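Posting here for the record, re: PXL.
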Amino acid sequence: MKRILTIQDISCLGKCSITIALPVLSAMGVETVILPTAVLSTHTMFKNFTVKDLTGELLPIAAHWKSENVHFDAIYTGYLGSAEEIEIAKRVFAMFRDKDTLLFVDPVMGDNGKLYPAFDTAYAALNAGLCKGTDIIVPNITEACLMTGTEYREVYDRDYIVSLLERLSGLGAGVSVLTGVSLSPGKTGVMGLDSSGTLFEYQNDRVDAAYHGTGDLFSSVCVGAVLRGRTLQEAVQIAADYTAHTIRVTLENPEKPWYGVDFERTLPDLIDALR
Ligand code: PXL
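Prediction output follows.
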């Protein structure tokens, strides 16, 4: 079985980061090791959330694994709480990167043109540094603009996305995949640029709803599908379809959840998609 390490926070209530990555990757048949950067009472879209920072624990935990000769087939980073944690993530990459270790970075820090509450522009520059030398990065348009110093646009065309991808590849990752890209009305999906300069894209019908944690769902499924032997383009398609399906199912829930998606209802469909 493949083994992945994921480095991100635990938002105890809220369905994002580790509370998505762990169940989803486990259901996909991937052993999932967690390195929690912080414990929050909820994700940061709730008011008055509490935070216990775990920065000081991260390197001792990693050093223990190293002494046990643990091997990771992939390391996947998501929401990191501070500049110092970005530096620690880089050290963890260096400690555990073997020839066959895939480094997958979701530089979580904002959406809809804005940074999440905990971050500033200096943090965005450090996240750009984290992407260097990794295999796959999956920013949304907001994160890509922040990391490349590009003006954020609500309304854009294909040329804007292609130039954003070209700027992203300047950050030094193997493949850049831009998420939340709408290339025509009523559609949304991703567009990517690989290290040979080849562009690829996948578009889906747009579901008119925004839920927290869908970026984490996309990333977890994408890296999980790669570990289960799919090509990156197949993985992107599986992840985009599954995320859209889960949003649709959540919208049908009469209880009207607002803080996260009902991925628990759709996990069996994800397992079927991998058969
Ligand atoms: O889904 C990204 C994410 C992860 N973790 C925390 C968050 C967010 C987005 O706001 O607040 C704590």
